[in-house]
Amino acid sequence: MKIIVKKAKETSFPSDALILPLSEEDNIRPYKEIDEELNGLLKKIIDSGEFSGKQNEISLLHTGGKIKPRRVLLIGLGKRNEVTRDKLRQAGGKACSYLRNLNVRDAALSTRTIASLKLMPADFAEGGLLSLYRFEKYKKEEITRGLKSITILSNKDLKKGIKWTEAAATATHLARDLVNTPSNDMTPSVLVKYARSLKKVSVRVIERNQAEKLGLGAYISVARGSTEPPKFIVITYKKKNVPPIALIGKSITFDSGGISLKPARGMEMMKYDMAGGAAVLGVMKAASEMNLPLNIIAVLPATENLPGGRASKPGDVVRTMEGKTIEIISTDAEGRLVLADAIGYVKKFKPSAIIDIATLTGACSIALGNEAIAMMGNDDSLMKKIEKASEESAEKVWQMPLFDEYKDYIKSDIADLKNSAGRSGSLVTSGYFLKEFAGDTPWVHLDIASTAWTDKEKPYIPRGATGIGVRLLISFLKNLQE
């Protein structure tokens, strides 16, 4: 969907539909002149109780040629004092997906109510862009239905905000595409191709033999069961000569659990276990498109986790790049193994901060449902910056503790650490395991296991891959450069 900004009167600008956002208290006040040209049609709808302005409520009216737009779409924002940036995004998502389903091709947006709330039309447009995503690559029938453009009617300079909105939405769509793609078409080698398609970055791919020479023993141990070559992908974006921000995305392109095999029911979902890597690729795409004056190094330790004659076994001991040994209790706790070596690898670049994002534990959904990312870390300042980005993007994070006592949970009798402490505290002990490798470097872990996929349609998140973490980290990086 193309976003256009134009200075024009609502009733004089031709479109398939004119979108009028309204809060519960507004009545027709913001659009009194429009209602007069419609011979009181808006007032009749509101007075009849058919539309009250409740959040995401919709009412569609045909204008009968009285004004240039063919239709008027009323979209509710809820109570005026409770309207937030995200509620505006939701309204944008609801309105645009509704119009798409009617095969409306172009729409216009009145900004009167949005301006009176001191909010930005870009948020409404962002919700619209995110809601229109569909993954139909494998369907025979070509879907031509779609909203092609939305014109924001405003006399303000919205160019910068719109550019950010488009970059964030495009990056989120990329992440969703990667995660939705079946694992037979989304291998570590395919992730390499996507990394190399990014502009203004350099890409290094560490192959299996090189990884072994570098001592990435924990990472390689996960790859042993698969015939698909592992790819340790390193992406560098440097626009400023400062210590880098390191982003690490778990990139298990299919996770069967290995020898510690997962139940068959729902295993098809495990193509999503590279959602962290997909998010990082999306973020790097947006960073390069927006030409952020930052130094970023991104690592995607990509592999499959499968059983096989050469697969790692429970009870095996592996050595990480930093020399620590890990006893493998469960081969299904593979994410922390690849992340441990990725953290060890990026530390040699002396980063100012490390952020890893991963579909790491099923316990995350038990603790937080499907509503929030579990956040853990060793640096309060860094976590506060992530929290600020969370408020802006509405990709919710919730800080979990990393008490020193958790160290005892991951002690091994025969190695420095064990990769699983069992069910008790499994969300936080996985975080503490990674903390052992972060050391003194400011570090944050984001567990997106419960938020990277949704079976429920939301106003601007279709069913399937959510692209979670992309907009959160883009907002974080944007704040750093400002």
Classified by CATH, the class of the largest domain is Alpha Beta
The level of helicity is 25-40%
How far is the first residue's CA from the last residue's CA?
28 Å
Number of domains: 2
Quickly count the helices: 16
Structural class: alpha/beta
Radius of gyration: 24 Å
> So, CATH architecture of the largest domain?
3-Layer(aba) Sandwich
Shape: elongated
Q: Biggest sheet: strands, sense, closure?
A: 9 strands, mixed
Query: What is the CATH fold-level name of the largest domain?
Result: Aminopeptidase
Q: Give the strand tally.
A: 20
Blueprint of the fold:
Layout: E1 2-6, E2 17-22, H1 32-37, H2 41-47, E3 58-62, E4 71-76, H3 85-101, E5 106-110, H4 112-116, H5 121-131, E6 149-153, H6 159-180, H7 188-196, E7 202-206, H8 208-214, H9 217-223, E8 231-238, E9 245-249, E10 251-255, H10 275-289, E11 295-305, E12 317-319, E13 325-327, H11 335-347, E14 353-358, H12 363-368, E15 373-377, H13 380-393, E16 397-399, H14 406-409, E17 417-418, H15 426-438, E18 443-447, E19 453-454, E20 464-465, H16 470-481
Parallel strand pairs: 1-6, 2-4, 2-5, 5-6, 9-11, 9-14, 10-11, 13-17, 14-18, 15-16
Antiparallel strand pairs: 3-4, 7-8, 8-11, 12-13, 15-18, 19-20
